[in-house]
Model the fold of this input.
Amino acid sequence: MVDLTDQGRPGVYARLLGPFELIGLETPEAGRSLLLHEALALLLLHREGVHPRVLASALWPRGVTDDVRDALIDRLREWLGTDTDGSSRMSFDATGRLVLSSTVVSDWDVLQTLHHAAMEGPGADDPQTRRRLLADALALARGSLLEDRAPGRYGWLAHEIVDAQHPVLVAEVALALAGLHLDAGKPKAAVAAVQTALAVTGSDERLWLALLHATHATGDPARLEAAAESLLARNHALNGAARGLPPRVEALLDELLPAWRGSIAN
Done:
């Protein structure tokens, strides 16, 4: 999470949630692009900094010479350029780690900042402000983290906690926003919030329950039946035909749509 309060427009903005997109940088030459993008992604997901040795082991897990690693670092620094005050957007800190300046920002940074502001900052005591902040955060959730990663690249992500944190945080944002929409008497908006998160983290049982609650609140039995059908199809795709719905989801369907076992479960 970075402090965006007085930062204004970032010098470089990276979209990591969904396809990797960059605003504020020239497109590097084709032969250098993959490594430069991957190196930048690693730094963006480690605002505390990354040591050159760690960078090298992530990008070249089978090994690389120091001169090749250093050439990439120089190329990355040149590509990122400088801020308006002339300082480099990437530098070494006192411990020798590579760090990005605060003007290099990702949508993951912004999502975390908005969520914190909604739950612990100015939105904590103001439902209207919290709803606005959460809606802005959820709008950033375009897809899974770096979903268009090239085959054979980004192997280091499998060992990163952020790969697990991202879908959980998106779900938490959507659940909180859906709750606020329901409190405000806007069940259709609550359904939309949950569906946005389901596109990112479709196996989260909390979202399945929230979808049923919010859809039931619309007062439309056909819409509720369609939501139940969608969850059955999702469960089939995730777990196969032999495994039934999670017990809590089944119990909620029994409560909200008692005839579901005869009408849609077969």
About this structure: The chain has a mean pLDDT of 93.
